[in-house]
Every structure is written in C-alpha cells, then in structure tokens.
Design a protein that fits this description.
Elements (H helix, E strand, L loop, with lengths): L1 E5 L1 H7 L3 E4 L3 E3 H12 L8 E4 L2 E2 L5 E3 L3 E5 L6
Parallel strand pairs: 1-7
Antiparallel strand pairs: 1-2, 3-6, 4-5, 4-7
Amino acid sequence: MIKILLFAGLAEKAGTSTLEIDMEQATTDDVKAVLKEQYGLESIDTAMIAVNESYVKENTSVSSGDTVAVIPPVSGG
C-alpha cells in the first residue's frame, strides 16, 4: 500500500485528506494518474509532490510503505 496525503483544495475535492493505493511499485506519475481517474483531481498537475517528506521530481519511483504528499500551489494575502 502507498499512503497518499492530500492538502487544501485537493483534499476537499477528494472528500478526504488521506488515501491508500494498493500498489507495490509505481511512480509519482502513476499515482497522479490514479488520483485523476478515481477522484477527478485534474488540478493535480500543478501540485508539488513529496515522497517520505522529501520533494521529488516527476516520475520518481515509489514503493509499498511509502507516503506520497500532494501539495497544491498556495496563494493568499
């Protein structure tokens, strides 16, 4: 299982801030594709991705037991 943490608008749209995906091996791009397909998170393409609390680039390998955080751009004033 890969644990997914969603923040801000992504968590609101998905209806939860924590998900688990039943995959042994994947990439961050695979995880994003699953989230788009199953939860309609189209805006995920602009989000920052962290694996096990470290920011990563696109298409980074993730394994069962890893935690993937999906952090959308933040604005405010």
